Amino acid sequence: MSASTTLDQPPPPAAEPSGTGNSGSLTAYLGQNLRQYGMMAALVVIVVLFQILTDGKLLYPNNIAALIQQNAYVLILAIGMVMVIVAGHIDLSVGSVVAFIGGICALLISEHGVPWLLAVVLSIGLGLVVGAWQGFWVAYVGIPAFIVTLGGMLLFRGLAIVFVGTTVAGLPAGFNDISNGSLPSALGFLADLDGLTLLIGVVAIAGLAGAQLRARRALLRNDLRAEPFAAFAGKLVLAVLAIGYITYLLAKSAGGTPVVLIIVAGLVLLYTFVMNNTVFGRHIYAMGGNLPAAMLSGVKTKRVNFMIFVNMGLLAGVAAVVTTSRAGAAVAAAGQNFELDAIAAAFIGGTAVSGGIGKVTGAIIGAFIMGVLNMGLSIMNVDPSWQMAVKGLVLIAAVAFDITNKRRAK
């Protein structure tokens, strides 16, 4: 199985290799890509619904900033979880790993006098070690990832309780600003809008449009399949409008651009490139799509599996830093259900249960769907128990949609 930036796209209709197409071919293309466009439409519908139900409170500027800050851990963990699931595995330990590493980070800062920036680096390094530990058992011993990470969930939760015990607080402001702070208003304000946030939004829009146009030109130049122009243009216009509107809301918020948004955006760009444009990413897709064929093709499956879990440990370390920073303290109970949030975000975002199919951007959309549900229901003062029930129903519906879509395609 080969993988590329067009991995999940079906072949275009034979009558229009240029991808410019008529309305009939566009309809067929949208039908074939129902998963991709369905999750985007679902996010829009959920946002509009809760905007109405909350009397416009959902899209208050400060609420948008809070939405990003509160769900940063899901966004970070979902990136790694997509790679794990696409390869045909699962990781149940990330919540416990977040609690363990977050506790160690807080202890290094508050009790051992380690500068917070060095403590962050050491914590991410500890995440690599944890990932290597679990990857060894999965890749080289051959224990199923479900069993290894279930054991890891118990092991690292126990270590978190042993090392952290009670709450570890008194963390420095610089560390807490990782999740709670915003970029300084270095460019001043345009009316009541933060200038730096506006500049970041313009750069993001220009970068997205330029990258998409270059990618499409490259496909057409090499006579490769490309989506119909109407679908391409419509998707690009909607993305530009969404980024522009979010930029406007963040520029109006009390702090401007959250620091953690820059961290998450950097990770999304990096891992989108890794999954779409590197040998490592293609090997992950190949293993998830057809493991025996990947092995016969020369893919070093043990090494790839090992690196997948090392990478998951690294991202769990980043999520631990973000979570501890957000709370301003470390507790042994941190990270409860984080693994379920990350898995749900991946599945809602279109990652196939059976592996082989999934995108980082899809998981990000899935994470935002979960985040909007949480925030919208909280604004409406819905009981937390019912919030969990709603999220469970959404997860079941997303997986059922994926399975039904596959059957229809066959």
TrEMBL record:
<feature type="transmembrane region" description="Helical">
    <location>
        <begin position="37"/>
        <end position="54"/>
    </location>
</feature>
<feature type="transmembrane region" description="Helical">
    <location>
        <begin position="92"/>
        <end position="110"/>
    </location>
</feature>
<feature type="transmembrane region" description="Helical">
    <location>
        <begin position="66"/>
        <end position="85"/>
    </location>
</feature>
<keyword id="KW-0762">Sugar transport</keyword>
<keyword id="KW-0813">Transport</keyword>
<feature type="transmembrane region" description="Helical">
    <location>
        <begin position="256"/>
        <end position="274"/>
    </location>
</feature>
<feature type="transmembrane region" description="Helical">
    <location>
        <begin position="304"/>
        <end position="322"/>
    </location>
</feature>
<keyword id="KW-1003">Cell membrane</keyword>
<feature type="transmembrane region" description="Helical">
    <location>
        <begin position="187"/>
        <end position="209"/>
    </location>
</feature>
<feature type="transmembrane region" description="Helical">
    <location>
        <begin position="116"/>
        <end position="142"/>
    </location>
</feature>
<dbReference type="GO" id="GO:0022857">
    <property type="term" value="F:transmembrane transporter activity"/>
</dbReference>
<keyword id="KW-0997">Cell inner membrane</keyword>
<feature type="region of interest" description="Disordered">
    <location>
        <begin position="1"/>
        <end position="21"/>
    </location>
</feature>
<feature type="transmembrane region" description="Helical">
    <location>
        <begin position="154"/>
        <end position="175"/>
    </location>
</feature>
<dbReference type="GO" id="GO:0005886">
    <property type="term" value="C:plasma membrane"/>
</dbReference>
<dbReference type="Pfam" id="PF02653">
    <property type="entry name" value="BPD_transp_2"/>
</dbReference>
<comment type="function">
    <text>Part of the binding-protein-dependent transport system for D-xylose. Probably responsible for the translocation of the substrate across the membrane.</text>
</comment>
<feature type="transmembrane region" description="Helical">
    <location>
        <begin position="360"/>
        <end position="380"/>
    </location>
</feature>
<keyword id="KW-1133">Transmembrane helix</keyword>
<keyword id="KW-0812">Transmembrane</keyword>
<feature type="transmembrane region" description="Helical">
    <location>
        <begin position="229"/>
        <end position="250"/>
    </location>
</feature>
<dbReference type="InterPro" id="IPR001851">
    <property type="entry name" value="ABC_transp_permease"/>
</dbReference>
<keyword id="KW-0472">Membrane</keyword>
<protein>
    <recommendedName>
        <fullName>Xylose transport system permease protein XylH</fullName>
    </recommendedName>
</protein>
